[in-house]
User: Fold these one by one.
Assistant:
Number 1:
Amino acid sequence: MKSGTRALGLADSYKSDAETSTVAGAVVRADRVLDGLAFGHVTVGGTDSTDRLTELVHRVDRPDIQYVFISGIAPAWYNIVDLPQFANALSCPVISVSFEDSDGLEPALRDAFDGAALTKRLSRYERQPPRWPIEVNDEQVFVRAIGLDASESARVVRTFTPEGGRPEPLRVAHTAARAGDTLSQTI
């Protein structure tokens, strides 16, 4: 992959006592050069993440982005991203990366919600593509991808992860989201 290939990483900084969670979008080249930042918000415990992330990507307005990375699928306390809908709104592949093995979100969703709120989240969760493990630099991450097969998504994740187990676009986005969240708390 060329060193100038760009990916957009999306990650949030969630605080349980806040109404919204800060989301950062970081455009990072394959050679680890940061090439842009944007910020937005999603509702803590809400259902607006797909729409808010789509708006953020469109606001970034970078036709040179070839991949979009998302940190997990449930930012801001189970505000589940509808990956198929999200990917359909974009013109590039979407890769969701999580960092812990689990039996899935369904038990946690059932503990946290009931009625229509649970039904809506379970419906979104069930539409997600399957998740599979990828070994990266002696660490394991878990990936869901739309627009790439398993081997291609592993190649992209490894290319954007020069060290450790966190792809650089997500590492930078998470750092920026935390900083943006801290700033918004002090103003």
Number 2:
Amino acid sequence: MSARGEFSSRLGFILAAAGSAVGLGNIWGFPTQVASNGGAAFVLVYVILAFLLAYPVLMAELIIGRATRSNMVAALGKISGNNIGKAAGIWGFITVSLILSFYALVAGWMLSHLVQTITDMLGQQGWSTWLVTSSVTRDIVFSALFLCLTALIVTGGVSKGIEKWSVRLMPALFIIIALLILYVSTLDGASEGWSAYLLPDFSLVMDPELLVNAMGQAFFSMSLGVGTMLVYGSYISKKESLPTLGASVALVDIGVAVLAGMLIIPAMYVALHNGIEIFTGTGELIEGPNLIFAVLPSLFDSMGSVGVYVAFVFFALMLIAALTSSISMLEVPVAYVVESHEIERRPAVWLLTFCVFAASTTIALNFNQLFVLTIDLTTKYSQPLLGLVLCIYAGWVWKRNEVLKELLQGNEQAEQGLFWKIWPWYVKFVCPVVIAIMFYLKIVN
């Protein structure tokens, strides 16, 4: 059996965990949520709820992971002492694998658009047209390429694979976002975007829809519920203070989301200034795939000769964001197969990559029936319920003394700290109720 890995530095863990949380949803979902829900008022509510709701669940995953030094299946099995915990872990294993299967398709679109900017530079118009035209062949080819990139990183293990690439990719992501913000801000129309993003409408702060949207964004943006943070937590050194590390991850994730808004919203208003429609029929800002693959490419086209270079940098950014999330998703089933079935890491990675690719291909071949269904089943239903399960295990099933024992490993004064005075009862009583309400409201809506 392969030796268990460990992050070699605090920075390596923070960047890897933040990279897991920072995905495509942060970059195309958060900005339009802000602009459509009261501007800076939404940002304020989001930041508050990120620490009131998402941070406690994040800490549950990190503490369980480091204490058990196990994958999600084994960890919940150890805490519960029965097969019910293992079943919950397998549920998480299946959920994260399905998320990765549709995520690979979307990331494949990012990769094909990135390659299209290169073929444009080389004057290969025929290839450019094929690369940006939706087809099953294109989707399967580029999802396979993206999954291979992910697998190549994960085969390196924790310190030589995940950590090594996270400390390179995450700074690159920050630099690219910053450069694009500076460039877009010089264009006509950007100031209107800054106003829409930064000027608060506090009359919406207590709007139920805004609260539900902010709670959902806070919870899902941190990659919670499916075991990614639990597995990453299992690779943390016993010398580290978990509450501090968790807060650092939350702050970096929030920071990237806010930065993404500083790029996307001004860019959308620049597009509007150039005659490109950025609103839906109901008057809301366009978001999701239509934003990334219709509005912004039209903006790049309107920029003239410099547009293709801006497009290249932008889609490189999107690919980096996708990769930092996908490597954490693949690590969840890999950790389970390596540790529970004593398979070497390299064959385990490629076996599971092939299984995910088979699921991606099935979705691509039955796109209209399976794509939205898979997203709904995993992110709308399964993920919040798994978050609820983790709160129950951390707050009700796991012995309080065992939790404290783990926290004391990285901080001998943990018992006297504010975290220990609040978190145990908060994750036991408050988080399950809030997550259950959020889950109910999402279904009703």
